[in-house]
Amino acid sequence: MKPTKLMAILILGITALSIRAQEPTRAQYQSTVNRCVDFLRQQQANDGSFSKAAGIGPTGIVASGLLSVGVPATDPVITKALTYLETYCQADGGIYTLESSHRNYDTCIAMVAFSQANQDHRYDERLKKAEAFVKGLQWDESEDKDPSDSFYGGAGYGSQSRPDLSNTAYLIDALRSLGNPPDDPAIQKALIFVSRCQNLESEHNSTEFAAKIDDGGFYYTVAAGGESKAGSELNGGLRSYGSMTYAGLKSMIFAGLEKEDARVTAALEFLRDHWSLDENPGMGEQGLYYYYQTMARALDAWGEEEFLDGRGRGHAWRSQLLSKLIKLQQPNGSWVNETSRWMEGDPNLVCGYVLLTLARCQPVD
Q1: How is the chain split into domains, by residue range?
Q2: pLDDT for position 9
Q3: The pTM is what?
Q4: In whole angstroms, how far apart are CA 197 and each of 124, 236, 301?
Q5: How far apart are the first and last CA of the chain?
Q6: Which residues contact 161 (CB under 8 A, 6 or more apart)?
Q7: Sign of CA dihedral 244, 248, 250, 254
């Protein structure tokens, strides 16, 4: 073996060992989680809520996040949060405050939290009613929409509201949390809507926006004239961005699409070309923590430990994301986004997002 080749092998080996040594340990992971949990214990109101002025959504997200990182359902912080959510279980099966305009969003989030805490089946009846409620809100034939309509299969914030990809992803998450299979008719209807929010012209998407950008990424909604939170191009194309593309990828996987499906490969190509832990691609710091938790859940569902970016560089995404979150944690154990759009100035909500992210980033000893 030539000395130069031996030297190269040694350098690569030393580099790999150095990278491995820099990866967060399980002790660092647990410390990060514990500090966040301690922060949230101090933030919980006497009635069990978190940030109740924003509705019940933050309480559901925090409860789900806590359960995801191993806080037991019997812990007082969980029991109080779930008892608070139970007070808003309505006769129609929904879980929301009467003044809420976010009845689908609130119910889907609460469903996931109740499902995670349902080992003893105490929430079976509530979840059954909630499932019927959110399926009833989904845009389909019951709202006089046929499969050709841009609303079809989607879900919005509430009853009769314009469907969007974020809320449709929450609907799929809620149904999957119940153990519903990919071929659940509601999930398959949702897949129709999800596919139409992708910048990819195909047999599944012949909408007016499909070919205008055609980069494989996803945007907020195709319905009612379409909208991307990242804006539009001069030709009317709706710009793709990171958080919605991960939401689309996750939803397609949950709906049973194989890795070889053109919609999946196109989404992955966009995400490879726009790999970032520093921003929500296309949105900067807006929605950054929502982006992190959507990324982690999508890549966890995708099932590969290394993510290859558009330059051919491999990323151990779990450890890299964990390192990023450790770096961003505040001295009091919380996280907060200085760009406060979509409520990310609220540390309670952001902590919930981060716990959902951390649950997919545990180091392997």
Answers
A1: 42-137, 275-291+304-365
A2: 38
A3: 0.93
A4: 33, 14, 20
A5: 34
A6: 101, 104
A7: positive
Contact 172, 254 (CB under 8 A): yes
- pLDDT at res. 11: 41
In angstroms, the CA 81 to CA 222 distance is: 35
Q: Identify the three-state secondary structure at position 235.
A: coil
Residues 68-118 pLDDT 10s: 999 999 999 999 999 999 999 999 999 999 999 999 999 999 999 999 999
pLDDT in tens, 342-352: 999 999 999 99
Instruction: DSSP for 82-113, please give it.
Output: HHHHHTTB-TTS-BS-TT-S-HHHHHHHHHHH
DSSP code of 194? H
Cα–Cα–Cα angle for 27, 29, 31, rounded to 5 degrees:
70
Residue 307: strand pairing partners: 315
Amino acid residing at 353 = Y
> Which residues contact residue 363 at a Cβ distance below 8 angstroms, ignoring those fewer than 6 apart?
23, 24, 25, 26, 28, 29, 318, 319, 322
At 41-62, the pLDDT tens digits run 999 999 999 999 999 999 999 9
Mean pLDDT of all residues in the chain?
A: 94
Contact 297, 360 (CB under 8 A): yes
Kind and range of the H or E run holding 315 = strand 314-316
Q: How far is residue 341's CA from residue 345's CA, in Å, rounded to a whole number?
A: 7
**Is the Cβ–Cβ distance between 48 and 78 less than 8 Å?**
no
The residue assigned the tokens 């990278």 is 19
Distance CA 201, CA 209 (A): 8
Confidence at residue 4, expressed as pLDDT on a 0 to 100 scale: 55
Q: What is the mean pLDDT of residues 229-250?
A: 98
Residue with tokens 């691609």: 281
